[in-house]
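Is heme C placement plausible here? Inputs below.
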Amino acid sequence: MGTRLPVIAVGVLLVAGAVSAQESAIVPVATVKQLCEGMITASSDALFNVGREAPADDDDWRAVLNSALMLAESGNLLMLDGRARDDGEWMTMSRALVDAGVTAVRAVEVRDVDALLGAGDEIVVACETCHVPYRDEGLSMPVR
Ligand code: HEC
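Reply from A.M.:
I modeled the complex. Tokens:
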């Protein structure tokens, strides 16, 4: 037992070192507002537009796939240190955006427009669920 403890201690130090190295390598550049306006709104709008005009060819589907992937990944970006507003609800709500994005990605992969519109509903809920407490302080999402 006496010889095993130092090994465990070194292991813990290595893990801690790896985590802090990872954190310092990530540099959040955009503010939450810029991320929401630039990346999140652009990619979610592209998905909502499918209701008006369904993708017609491979190029259209590729563009929709890119938007779905961007939206899903933007949920991950919201969770970075420096952006995350807390360790609890914010993370859950950001994760919900990732999950809604993944639902959209899966729908695009099988080219299912109805499933994609369903994913759109899930996405709107994810936006509003976070905006009510963190952006609008209890007011509902303004119509824009
Ligand atoms: C995990 C939380 C979270 C999620 C999810 C989220 N947002 Fe946001 N969003 C915010 C916060 C916080 C702000 C306000 C940022 C500020 O002003 O500092 C904001 C701001 C915005 C703004 C700018 C509004 C303004 O003028 O202040 C838009 C547009 C927006 N979000 C769109 C969206 C859309 C569309 C989605 C979903 C596809 C979404 N957001 C998902 C947290 C979130």
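Short version: Residues 54 and 60 are 9 Å apart (CA to CA).
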